[in-house]
Design brief:
The chain has about 110 residues and is mainly alpha-helical. It has four helices and two strands; from the N terminus they run ββαααα.
């Protein structure tokens, strides 16, 4: 029996799939493809299938839980805003007046 999954996207609304919004759908897809490749590499190397299923299954559960938590904590654009906020310096240190004096000269002051 075939299952049909719908990706809901209305007009001017972000993509939403099973509770994951916007860029988190992409993060989830990249993570799942990575886990699939890790399973294939482990299988080719010769690691026991039972160990691989346990490790990849646990890793998949942890990844989905983490992305779901991020999606609900930060929302559609909040993760990008939080990472941008971390890059803002706490203070701007100016030990000389030269940069400030040159601003007045370049601006053609009054």
């Amino acid at each position: 029996m075939a299952s049909v999954y719908e990706i809901n996207k209305g007009i001017n609304r972000p993509i939403e799939f099973k509770g994951f919004r916007a860029q988190y759908v992409t993060y989830l897809a990249i993570g799942l493809v990575t886990l699939l490749l890790l399973f294939a590499i482990g299988y080719i190397i010769g690691i026991s299938s039972y160990i691989l299923v346990a490790v990849i299954g646990g890793g998949g559960f942890a990844m989905v839980s983490w992305i779901y938590k991020l999606s609900h904590k930060y929302g559609e654009h909040g993760l990008m805003k939080a990472s941008a906020y971390r890059n803002i310096p706490t203070a701007i240190v100016c030990r000389s007046r030269k940069p400030l004096l040159s601003l007045k000269q370049k601006g053609g002051g009054k």
